């Protein structure tokens, strides 16, 4: 509603949308992300706080909050208000409280003394009209004195449990059992002997009285003269004089003069109230359940419904406890009206957040989805909370005083609901989102709808209303609802007063000073320590007692006025616990008393509740699947291209990257650019490497270490420049003998030697010399590790600081050299691999190797054959057929590592990709379990597989996919290939070719056995062949953002799903004209992997970053599949044009 009020200033009624850099949005987003990441901590804290807030009202039955919650009227409107000034009273109430030791009033000695006090004050009756006592009073049940019919006085005492008989009291062996058994006994005045009315300072266990602090004797006087009061005072004076040395009385003369006037009101709820509440709750329940069932997280809607109910219940009970501690009396409002408050507030925030989560891209991590959603709508919830607080304050100015107390309760509930919404509900919702049910549901819906667009059906108004898409906004429904509830409650109290609800009454009340609440009256400070003061005792009297008093004092009426005197206190001399006040007056005092008496039960309840919530989380996280898939199913949802800012003027010829997302590019203009990935975007730095001293040019090799701290650049002369990224300067320029060759390996590696981990630059020359350069000191040593030329080499990092060098020499032998010892120059030859002819039987030698440390494997590559061996045992695992592989183009991808029951590593899928020699295509081979009931592939040794009956790569289904032309490409960590190529004619014109079309174009001639095994290509772009499988359901899509762009980015997943798009960046239309002026590109340049989902490719003098889904760089998040490069918004622009199939 606040946005409608601000329409004259804003010119729109739509809520504002904060920019991603706004501090309020960033704060909510950071809170949502942190809560989602640490959901268990958030739940434990909120449950613990909930137990502390709800324990007094729910579990501590003798507390004011517990008694107040228990005594809330069920179906009547009640009020107890002090009357200002003098008015005729309908009844005068006088009391005597008899105390023993602290909380020890229920024992024989105190009860006997109370019976003596009762006899002194009551026995003999009150001769009001002058006749003899025998005509004024009679014995009830042969012991208790009761007035005859027509007399206007009465009394009530706990001694009535024993019929006011000394003999019955003395013979009672179990006093508490007698009290609990006769707690529903009624006197001749039809007053029930409830423990709450005849005892003060009660302690209950299982709804049974266990202890009390005082016995309460009450006299009701309805006479209109002062004779009965004078007689009471005379008897009290006599009692004080003859009390005896063992007892004391306060005041010492027994005379009480201080009194107050109270007006008591009781009015049953009308049928209209019942219909209004029942209809409201029924409509709300149907709406909430229907909305929950419509959520795409279909398995957890019931769990979220339980969460919503628990949150609302906690907010109501916690607010009641806090209001009781603040002295707010809520016993005037019927119990059914309280839940309506939290319904008005909580549901709006809940569905607003859920809808925001549903609108976030499903490929985002669950924590980021929650954070982004909360950042998007958090300020709206905060604004609505302030709006409702202001509305409640305005209502409290003109409503009745007792309704103003309800307004305080509503305000406290609003605050609790907002806090628990940001903590408890956000944590549970994050757990639900982590199940990825929303993403799965979206994918299933897309598959069900198919690619063919259908005309949307016309929806009914009722359906649109349920979905919240009607033109009439319902954003102010909660505000209107709470305003209506407050007015409805206040209406009842106006009806029973002398004032009538009108605009003039509202104006007068709003302009007047704030009204004093009834519970603000200060009673006389008690002279002894009491478990319950008279003021507190009066508040604890429930509406059932009030109804009986109405029937006794003023039948048929809805209100009466009572004059209540302070009680006379009779106390045992030397009573324990009466010498000093024990009631805490500060918050710390209340907490200290709570800790002393209720630590164990509160902790026990917290443990049980935490266990219950843990079971709920287990239910929410349960998927029903035998095993969670390792592949990220949502990674294909985004396919974006970004261009990094650069100052280089000629083509980039060499690139290097690291896991933090930093990049380095060497250009033909003799400069080197460094792009540092930060939270504010990519920050470029250009080094004039050719003009500096010493000169670093020409650069033939470069490398970034994984920590992003060093950049090493090597020239053809062997000079290496070590650039410190944190210090932004060169550290040193050591000289290493490259022996006139381009290094076969130039890379950083961390090695632990003597328990000290240091970064090293490894430089391996093709003639077999290895140089280890320590990055921090520049100390280097060179050793010869091979007598023959080295064809291929890679670093194998087994664990942190444990590295080895794996290389292939010219005879085809595979060597492994441990780097732990600096002087170690002898390598181990993998004996299980046949090096090839002559004189061996293998038709070809090993040309190249590829290390997969995550699986403990190494691929040895021959012409048309790949062999897999275990790094530790050097045993041959499997061999399979490949094409005519181009050296150094082999890539291996796999799903998350698991462990087979034989102890060996296992995966769900294994894929290899490579380019064929002298050809333009790329081939992707994927291995999946042949038996669908088996969910993993064992990568153990053959003997171990036979022994444990494991299924290895021999029991798999092989699928072959290829792309032509492929251009330049690189693998990612999510089992997908990303590349850049020149667009072919077939991608600019949509075409669909069926498998049965014999006249389909076939411009690719098979060149290898793998290629020949593939089926006839469907077009010159992509073809697939499945062994023991089919191609049904495979989609190949092309999205064009600019038909004039001759280049395109493409991606191929391990399942054969192909996608392509223009290489123009997503924000191309927003770029400056100068940024659009690219060099004429003949061929794309070097390409490197960047993070887990991205690749960086040199394209002329620019760098293109292509991302699948959402990228993460060592904890840094990039939104919506794009990279923030400081040029504009995070969010990608919508792609123009329709998807085109290329089969």
Task: Describe, in plain words, how this protein is organized in 3D.
With 1143 residues, the protein is an alpha+beta fold. It contains 27 helices and 53 strands. The longest helix is centred in the middle third of the chain and has 35 residues, at 587-621. The protein is elongated and about 125 Å long.
| Bulk shape | elongated
| Biggest β-sheet strands, sense, barrel | 9 strands, mixed
**Total helical segments:** 27
* Average predicted local confidence, pLDDT: 75
Strand content: 25-35%
The chain-level structural class is alpha+beta
Distance, first to last CA: 53 Å
Helical content band: 25-40%
Radius of gyration: 42 Å
Unreliably modeled segments: 129-142, 437-461, 464-477, 494-501, 514-522, 623-637, 987-1007, 1015-1035, 1117-1143
Q: Quick one: how many beta strands?
A: 53
Reconstruct the topology from this structure.
Elements: H1 2-5, H2 7-10, H3 23-37, H4 39-58, H5 64-70, E1 76-82, E2 91-99, H6 108-121, H7 133-136, E3 137-140, E4 144-147, E5 153-156, H8 166-171, H9 175-181, H10 195-198, E6 199-200, E7 203-205, E8 208-211, E9 214-221, H11 227-241, E10 247-250, E11 259-268, H12 271-294, H13 301-325, H14 339-359, H15 366-398, H16 401-434, H17 437-449, H18 461-467, H19 477-495, H20 503-511, H21 534-539, H22 543-553, E12 559-565, E13 568-572, H23 587-621, E14 639-644, E15 652-657, E16 663-667, E17 672-678, E18 681-687, E19 699-704, E20 710-715, E21 720-724, E22 729-732, E23 745-753, E24 756-764, E25 769-774, E26 780-784, E27 790-799, E28 802-809, E29 814-818, E30 828-829, E31 848-852, E32 857-862, E33 865-870, E34 876-880, E35 891-894, E36 898-899, E37 905-907, E38 910-915, E39 922-929, E40 937-938, H24 942-948, E41 956-963, E42 968-971, E43 976-982, H25 985-988, H26 1009-1013, E44 1022-1026, E45 1036-1039, E46 1047-1053, E47 1058-1062, H27 1073-1076, E48 1087-1090, E49 1094-1099, E50 1102-1108, E51 1112-1113, E52 1116-1117, E53 1140-1141
Helix pairs in contact: 3-15, 3-16, 4-13, 4-16, 4-23, 5-13, 12-13, 12-14, 13-14, 13-16, 14-15, 14-16, 14-19, 15-16, 15-19
């Amino acid at each position: 509603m606040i946005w409608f009020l601000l329409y004259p200033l804003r010119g729109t009624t739509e809520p504002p949308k904060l920019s991603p850099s706004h501090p309020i949005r960033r704060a909510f987003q950071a809170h949502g992300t942190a809560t989602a990441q640490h959901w268990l901590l958030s739940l434990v804290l909120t449950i613990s706080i909930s137990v502390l807030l709800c324990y007094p009202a729910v579990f501590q039955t003798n507390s004011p909050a517990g008694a107040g919650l228990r005594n809330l009227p069920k179906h009547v409107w009640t009020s107890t208000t002090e009357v200002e000034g003098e008015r005729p009273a309908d009844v005068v109430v006088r009391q005597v409280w008899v105390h023993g030791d602290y909380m020890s009033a229920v024992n024989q000695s105190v009860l006997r003394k109370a019976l003596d006090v009762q006899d002194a004050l009551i026995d003999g009756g009150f001769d009001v009209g002058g006749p003899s006592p025998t005509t004024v009073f009679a014995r009830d049940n042969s012991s208790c004195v009761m007035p005859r019919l027509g007399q206007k006085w009465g009394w009530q005492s706990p001694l009535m449990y024993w019929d006011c008989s000394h003999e019955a009291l003395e013979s009672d062996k179990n006093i508490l059992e007698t009290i609990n058994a006769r707690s529903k006994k009624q006197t001749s005045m039809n007053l029930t002997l409830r423990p709450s009315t005849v005892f003060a300072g009660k302690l209950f266990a299982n709804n049974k009285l266990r202890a009390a602090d005082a016995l309460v004797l009450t006299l009701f006087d309805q006479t209109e003269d002062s004779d009965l009061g004078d007689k009471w005072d005379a008897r009290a004076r006599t009692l004080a004089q003859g009390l005896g040395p063992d007892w004391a009385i306060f005041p010492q003369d027994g005379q009480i003069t201080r009194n107050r006037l109270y007006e008591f009101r009781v009015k049953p709820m009308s049928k209209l109230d019942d219909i209004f509440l029942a209809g409201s709750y029924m409509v709300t329940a149907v709406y909430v359940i229907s909305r929950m069932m419509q959520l795409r997280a279909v398995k957890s809607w019931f769990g979220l419904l339980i969460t919503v109910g628990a949150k609302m219940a906690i907010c109501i009970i916690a607010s009641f406890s806090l209001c009781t501690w603040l002295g707010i009396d809520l016993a005037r409002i019927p119990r059914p009206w309280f839940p309506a408050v939290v319904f008005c507030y909580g549901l709006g925030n809940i569905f607003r957040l859920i809808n925001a989560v549903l609108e976030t891209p499903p490929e985002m991590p669950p924590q980021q989805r929650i954070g982004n959603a909360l950042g998007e709508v958090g300020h709206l919830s905060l604004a609505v909370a302030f709006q409702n607080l202001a509305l409640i304050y305005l209502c409290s100015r003109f409503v009745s005083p007792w309704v103003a107390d309800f307004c305080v309760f509503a305000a406290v509930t609003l605050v609790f609901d907002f806090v628990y919404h940001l903590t408890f509900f956000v944590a549970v919702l994050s757990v639900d989102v982590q199940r990825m049910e929303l993403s799965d549901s979206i994918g299933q819906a897309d598959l069900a709808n198919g690619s063919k667009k259908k005309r949307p059906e016309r929806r009914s108004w009722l359906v649109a209303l349920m979905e919240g898409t009607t033109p009439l906004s319902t954003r102010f429904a909660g505000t209107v609802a709470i305003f209506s509830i407050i007015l409805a409650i206040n209406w009842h109290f106006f009806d029973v007063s002398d004032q009538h609800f009108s605009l003039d009454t509202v104006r007068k009340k709003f302009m007047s000073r704030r009204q004093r609440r009834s519970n603000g009256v200060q009673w006389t400070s008690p002279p002894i320590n009491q478990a319950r003061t008279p003021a507190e005792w009066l508040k604890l009297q429930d509406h059932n007692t009030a109804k009986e008093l109405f029937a006794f004092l003023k039948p048929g009426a809805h209100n009466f006025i009572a004059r209540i005197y302070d009680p006379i206190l009779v106390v045992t001399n030397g009573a324990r616990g009466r010498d000093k006040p024990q009631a805490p007056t500060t918050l710390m005092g209340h907490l200290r008393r709570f800790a002393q008496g209720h630590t164990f039960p509160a902790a026990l309840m917290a443990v049980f509740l935490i266990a219950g919530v843990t079971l709920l989380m287990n239910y929410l996280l349960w998927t029903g699947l035998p095993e969670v898939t390792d592949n990220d199913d949502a990674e294909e949802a985004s396919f974006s291209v970004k261009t990094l800012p650069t100052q280089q003027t000629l083509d980039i010829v060499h690139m290097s990257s690291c896991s933090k997302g930093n990049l380095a590019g060497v250009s033909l203009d003799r400069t080197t650019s460094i792009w540092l990935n930060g939270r504010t975007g990519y920050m470029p730095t250009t080094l004039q490497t050719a003009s500096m001293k010493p000169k670093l040019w020409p650069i033939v090799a470069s490398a970034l270490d994984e920590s992003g701290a060093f950049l090493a650049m090597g020239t053809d002369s062997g000079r290496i420049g070590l650039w410190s990224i944190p210090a932004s300067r060169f550290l040193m320029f050591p000289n290493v003998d490259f022996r006139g060759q381009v290094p076969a390996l130039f890379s950083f590696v961390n090695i632990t030697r003597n328990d000290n981990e240091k970064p090293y630059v490894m430089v391996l020359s093709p003639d077999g010399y290895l140089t280890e350069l320590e990055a921090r000191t520049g100390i280097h040593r060179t050793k010869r590790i091979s007598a023959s030329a080295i064809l291929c080499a890679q670093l194998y990092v087994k664990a942190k600081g444990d590295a080895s060098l794996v290389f292939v020499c010219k005879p085809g032998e595979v060597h492994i050299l441990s780097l732990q010892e600096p002087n170690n120059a002898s390598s181990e030859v993998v004996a299980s691999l046949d090096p090839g002819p002559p004189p061996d039987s293998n038709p070809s030698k090993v040309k190249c190797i590829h290390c997969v440390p995550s699986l403990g494997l190494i691929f040895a590559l021959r012409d048309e054959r790949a062999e897999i061996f275990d790094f530790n045992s050097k045993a041959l695992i499997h061999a399979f057929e490949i094409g005519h592989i181009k050296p150094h183009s082999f890539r291996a991808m796999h799903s998350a590592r698991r462990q087979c029951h034989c102890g060996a590593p296992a995966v769900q899928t294994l894929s290899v990709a490579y380019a064929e020699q002298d050809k333009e295509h790329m081939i992707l081979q994927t291995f999946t379990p042949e038996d669908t009931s088996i969910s993993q592939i064992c990568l153990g040794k053959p003997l171990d597989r036979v022994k444990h009956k494991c299924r290895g790569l021999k029991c798999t289904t092989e699928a072959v996919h290829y792309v032509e032309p492929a251009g330049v490409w690189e693998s990612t960590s999510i089992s997908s290939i990303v590349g850049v190529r020149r667009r072919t004619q077939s991608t600019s014109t949509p075409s669909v070719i069926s498998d049965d079309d014999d006249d389909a174009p076939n411009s690719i001639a098979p060149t290898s056995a793998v290629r020949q095994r593939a089926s006839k290509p469907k077009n010159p772009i992509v073809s697939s062949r499945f062994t023991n499988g089919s191609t049904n359901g495979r989609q190949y899509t092309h999205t064009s953002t600019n038909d004039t762009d001759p280049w395109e980015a493409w991606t191929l997943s391990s399942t054969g799903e192909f996608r392509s798009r223009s290489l123009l960046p997503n924000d191309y239309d927003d770029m400056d004209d100068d940024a659009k002026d690219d060099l004429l590109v003949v061929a794309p340049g070097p390409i490197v992997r960047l993070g887990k989902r991205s690749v960086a490719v040199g394209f002329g003098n620019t760098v293109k970053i292509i991302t699948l889904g959402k990228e993460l760089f060592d904890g840094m998040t990039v939104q919506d599949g794009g990279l923030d490069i400081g040029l504009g918004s995070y969010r990608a622009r919508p792609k123009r044009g329709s998807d085109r199939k290329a089969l």
